[in-house]
Write a structure and sequence with these properties.
Length: 607
């Protein structure tokens, strides 16, 4: 997703902007640009490609003391230099960078053209620049305020004008913007990571808010020109968390740090005295939790699969009807909200448009919606009715890994809390929570097996189709494994219920289409073995993920990826790890850009 950086202060603006854009690269983009000014010059440089390509076209001597920058993930218009941001008005007096989609841009563009304005790009952003220029009468913040009044859609904007050197105006509606407050310098960005090298003091803007800043001051106001006072918050992340710390890719680092990230998700939330989970932030009393009769979990992508695990757990352990649903579907299905239903939205970034808009629709209908998020201060946790941070630390790789295991950690804790409030005995709770507490160590054990997984991945990297198969609690894990392989290796992979393949997908099986089976350590194990044999009877290769000691599987499967034994209901923590590593190693073998796969964005803030 697009990235915005703005700076005004004593440092060379070009360097600050380019460094900030580098830190936003993980979000996914296809072109980049900056506009820097020093009071005399006011120069824009932009091109298709990476930030390093942009740096090549910026003359050494260009420094400037203010400016704005952007990484673009194309929505309107092709990927080329012309459509890259920043965009200016046709007199080249002001420059804009923009995240979001303006839905009425064409009507506005037609009007501006009929008024004699000319356009150079296919973007909606250029329309914003022209509109602000038309409104400009010597005061940039007023011109921006008047212009955004006419916009329908979403925007995070940063704007500069040649006649007001050193001033940056920002406006937010639906796309995140954060103000960075420094010592004699100010920042504006779409993500705190862009400013963390300079300041840990942030002001998170809300929809309908604008800011006008110079290096020494800032003022906030709303779309009706009402002054706003906002709290300066502390950014809790550390800069080294944004580095690879010896790993070649962020994805590898984030896969391998899951022992610690799960530990952080569980920290302070395991209550041995009560043999239950303890979650602050739910904003619900014990009585209110006891009155919950149904749970709905709403999310996208990997977070949706984590929600599916949560829903299964709630039904199996807490005996509460629970269901996970795609956020993009919930928003438009006119959901039926009942007072005894509790909703969760799950989002690593806290900015996913589908999930944010679904939450708002549910809240409009009177639902209580709790967020399970990672990025502190992001939009979803700020607008939800409470919730739980997963504390996994910044997840930079586009492919989500540690967030998944931290998200399910929260659902294990919540499920235990709800189960113990209902029928789960102290002894059952204590046994379960003791095993949950061992998971970080078992994750570390599993990571020791990465070399074998790499060997298997290299043997299978040339295949063009895969099936990932699991049942019950491992069905969403199979879906997640398929998504991981798809999104970073570009190989077609389909997740399916293991029992369901005989109802159609088994037609896909031949010697060229391997099947990855998640073999449970109990319940449905025999049924899954039957499915494995059905696949092998049709020349299909079987890669099994199985529990240490299940030697029969080694007799049946063509390959086995072993995981340590644990409580069957905790198996998703461990079974997902070989799937993450398998996808990672296949992608490396195919020389893919593992951290920034083609076409993908880390946080999809558009519908
Ligand atoms: C997962 O690897 C993908 N990057 C994607 O499916 C992601 O999980 C989805 O876009 C949801 O993102 P969120 O958790 O930030 O809401």
């Amino acid at each position: 997703m697009c990235g915005i950086v703005g700076y005004c202060g004593p440092k060379p603006a070009t360097e600050v902007l380019l460094e900030g854009l580098k830190r936003l690269e993980y979000r996914g983009y296809d072109s980049a640009g900056v506009c820097v000014g020093d009071g005399e010059t006011f120069q824009t440089y932009k091109r298709r490609g990476k930030v390093r390509d942009l740096r090549e076209i910026i003359p050494e001597e260009v420094g400037g003391f203010y400016g704005i920058g952007h990484t673009r993930w194309a929505t309107h218009g092709g990927v080329n230099d012309q459509n890259a941001h920043p965009h200016s008005d046709d007199q080249n007096n002001l420059v804009v960078v923009h995240n979001g989609i303006i839905e009425n841009y064409q009507a506005l563009k037609n009007k501006l053209i009929s008024d004699g304005h000319t356009f150079k790009s296919e973007t909606d952003t250029e329309v914003i620049a022209q509109l602000i220029a038309v409104m400009y009468k010597g005061n940039l913040e007023q011109a921006v305020r008047e212009a955004v009044y006419l916009l329908k859609g979403t925007y995070g904007l940063a704007v500069v004008h040649r006649d007001e050197p050193g001033k940056i105006v920002g406006a937010r509606n639906g796309s995140p913007l954060v103000i960075g407050v420094g010592e004699g310098e100010m920042f504006l960005a779409s993500d705190v990571m862009a400013m963390m090298a300079h300041t840990k003091s942030a002001i998170y803007m809300e929809d309908g808010e604008l800011v006008s800043m110079t290096k020494d001051s800032y003022k906030m106001f709303d779309i009706n020109d009402q002054h706003i006072e906002k709290q300066v918050e502390h950014i809790h992340w550390e800069l080294e968390q944004l580095e690879k710390n010896g790993y070649t890719t962020f994805m590898e680092k984030e896969i391998h740090e899951q022992g610690q990230s799960i530990q952080r998700a569980l920290q302070g939330r395991i209550d041995f005295d009560g043999a239950t989970g303890h979650l602050g932030g739910l904003n619900l009393t014990a009585k209110e939790l006891l009155n919950i009769e149904r749970v709905e979990i709403v999310a996208a992508g990997t977070s949706y699969y984590a929600g599916m695990v949560g829903a299964f757990l709630l039904e199996r352990m807490a005996r509460i009807p629970a269901h996970a649903e795609l956020a993009s579907e919930v928003r438009y299905k006119n959901p039926i909200v009942q007072p005894s239903t509790l909703y969760f939205v799950v989002s690593q970034s806290g900015e996913t448009a589908d999930t944010l808009y679904a939450m708002r629709e549910l809240q409009r209908k009177g639902a209580t919606v709790l967020g399970v998020c990672n990025v502190v201060g992001s939009t979803i946790p700020r607008e939800s009715d409470g919730g739980v941070y997963i504390h996994s630390g910044p997840e930079i790789a586009v492919a989500s890994t540690k967030a998944f295991t931290s998200q399910i950690s929260v659902f294990y804790l919540f499920t235990l809390l709800m189960a113990r409030m209902r029928h789960y005995s102290f002894e059952e709770g204590y046994t379960f929570i003791s095993e949950l507490n061992r998971i970080p160590a078992l994750v570390e054990q599993t990571m020791q097996r990465a070399e074998h997984i790499r060997e298997v991945a290299r043997r299978y990297a040339h295949h063009e189709n895969f099936l990932f198969l699991g049942r019950g609690l491992l069905y969403p894990v199979a879906l997640e494994g398929a998504l991981k392989l798809k999104e970073i290796s570009y190989i077609h992979a389909e997740g399916y219920s293991a029992a369901e393949i005989k109802h159609g997908p088994i037609a896909l099986i031949n010697e060229h289409t391997p099947s990855v089976f998640l073999v449970p350590d109990g319940g449905l194990r025999e049924k899954v073995i039957n499915s494995m044999k059905e696949v092998q009877a049709r020349e299909g290769k079987v890669i099994a993920v199985a529990v240490d000691g299940d030697d029969e599987i080694a007799e049946i499967a063509d390959e086995v990826l072993w995981v340590p034994k644990t409580h069957e209901l905790l198996s998703p923590f461990l079974m997902v790890l070989p799937l993450q590593l398998f996808a990672f190693e296949v992608a490396l073998e195919l020389k893919r850009d593992v951290d920034q796969p083609r076409n993908l964005a880390k946080s999809v803030t558009v519908e």
